[in-house]
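Quick one from the shared queue. A colleague (R.T.) flagged Uricase as missing a structural entry in our internal table.

Convert sequence to structure tokens.
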Amino acid sequence: YGKNTIKFLRLHREGKKHLVKEVEVCAHLRLTSPQEYLEGNNSLVIPTDTIKNTVLVLAKKNGIPSLEQFAIDICNHFMTTFCQVAYVKTYVQEVPWQRLCEDGVPHIHSFICVPDGIRFCEAEQCRNGPLVVFAGIKDLKLMKTTQSGFEGFCKDGHTTLPERHDRILCGELFCKWSYGECKDFDFDCIWKKIRECILEAFAGPPDCGEYSPSYQKTVNCIQMLVLSRVSQVQVIEVVLNNTFYNVVDMKNLGLTNDKEVLVPVEAPYGSCACTLGRKKFFEV
């Protein structure tokens, strides 16, 4: 049981310069006894209002040095404060506020919300067990208008999809990774590096791009690049929900439409997912 959607803004002042973190937190506990379920005995139950207030107090006292560290702080508090807590799981996601810049000069106290992917993390711990930390990015919308195709696929009597060697590749990406044994990592730096890997693997070199023969291959390229460059990541999951575009037929309007006007196919849409990890991690 626990408390969901604990939303708040943490404002930190450094003189005239302000820093903000707006987050949403979900915190859940499992107790050593199910007596509140079986017997209606609430003597071990930590009220969800207490859970909410604890999250707010930790934000006030400790700040939010990183999403992952804040999730770890919440887990540590409940595990060390209440002996009846057997398991804690904390989810934290961030509202993507970025500092506003005017003529290249960062503003000291103004921000803009940029929907370029939502950062999130999870931390969970069992009593006498290791602390496990996951992090990720979701709702990241990506598109490239060429250097993508889909050919040589299996066909039967139900297949109507034509082969394409030049199409738009567009989708909404979800990516989640595990750090394995949690150490003193620079979580902010690692998250930014992984995001850069995602964008690079999706797009390819800026002057020419890189051909994608399928959504599946693009997913794998993202995972392989992250694992090759970020040693702290042990397992990475990527889900790419696809958005397809159809070229509008303008012959009746007396126009030739050379893939200049397209409409998105709202539903159904495709999706591909893959989880990839280091061999040593799966052997443990």
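The first helix runs from residue 35 to 38.
The chain has two domains: 2-129, 141-281.
Added to the table.
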